[in-house]
Every structure is written in structure tokens, then in C-alpha cells.
Specification:
Number of strands: 8
Radius of gyration: 19 Å
Strand content: 15-25%
CATH topology of the largest domain: Rossmann fold
Number of helices: 10
CATH superfamily of the largest domain: Response regulator
Amino acid sequence: MMTVNLKGNSRHSIGPDRDGGRMQPLPSPAHRPRSVLIIDDHDIVRFGLETLVHGCRELQLAGSADSLAAGLRIIEAAQPDLVISDMGTRDSSGLDTVRSVVAAQAPRPVLIVSIHDEMLYGEQVIALGARGYLMKENAHASVIPASLAILNGDTWVSPRLNAKLVNRMFRFAGHTHGRGASLSLSSRELEVLELLKSGKSTKEIAKTMEVSVRTVDIHRSRLKRKLGLRTGAELIAFASSRL
């Protein structure tokens, strides 16, 4: 099953196909709401997320899907500003789902909402390119703030997961010339490290994060200062061997 809204001036329908579906036009004000696609094969969860999106005037439901295949078709057709996706659907599971959704949606962001413990999967999901991770038990209170933050260019993780990521850096505080520096890394700095680890260049990182090359250079300079590193090569080596 899939439903989708596309920008336009008339109502259209698609199907019936094996999934079924329909398309409706998005409003086109000067500052239109940001479009959101929901992918989740649990009807109650999907309906709940749809209701939350409908209740936020900054967001517009672009469509919903109960399978990865249907979701990928909507991404191609509607090009939503944000995809909110489960980690598993009836035709895909786990990190493979994340990889597929992130690849199809790039460079636009993805928020993963899952029943799986964030301490087991959150770090891997962020490393694969998702811009946020929420456990479903926290979705009702957090999915709208998380969506708006991600659409504003931030990465969203819980304080507990953020502490894990930062504590990973604390373990290497001795690397900072013996100063035992307090390594308070921002979510954007952590994202740069993950992208460096994946082998991306500064230009590729800028494209992925949807920021300027200059902004990435600033993040890299701050990372080198906080980690006590001198060169870009040292920073890349740190990201590759320590994360």
C-alpha cells in the first residue's frame, strides 16, 4: 500500500497496482510546508506518524508506504524533503533498509524510527548516512522536533546516544597531547568524522551535508583543535582507526 502527494494543480490517481495508491497535490504557498514521506509496515505506527505530521503546520505529508519498494517509488516521484522510515519493512530488514532509503533519498535527509535499541543500532544508522535515530517509544514526543531539526540541517540523536558518541572520543583524550582535553563534539562534527571515515572528500562531505565547502573546512579545523591533531591526514587516520 502506498499513498503519495505530488506538487501540482490537479488531483491525480495512480493504480490500482499491487500496492494501490493515490496522489494529491501539495499546497504551493510562498513558504510551503516541508514534505515528509513515511515508510512503516505497521498500520498503527504509520497512522500515528501521519497524524503527528498532519498536526504540524511546518510539515506536509507527501505520502506513506508499508513496504520499501513502494517507498522507493514515492521517493522517486515526489522527492520529499524528509523521509521518516522504520528499519525494517515487509520486504526488507535492518540496515539494508537504511542503506536503500538513504541512497534513494540522498542528498535529502532521512530520519529512522525503530523499535531497536538505539545503543545497538543508532551509531550504525548515523554512519550509514541517516540524519537522525529515534526509538518508537519516544516517537510521539520527539518525531516532530527531530524532523524540524533535521530539516534545519542538524543531526538528531537522543542524549543517551549522543553521550555514547562523545564518550567514544573521551576514550582517546590521551591522544590530545596528554592534556586530557574535554572533547565536546557537536553532532555536525561527529557527522564529519563519520563521513571522513567512509572515505569522502571535503567536497563530497559538503554535498552530503548540504553545506558549503568552507563550512566543512571550519568543522575540520575545530575537530583538529579539539582532538589535538595537526594535519588533515591525521584527522582522517583518527576517524578511520578510532570510530
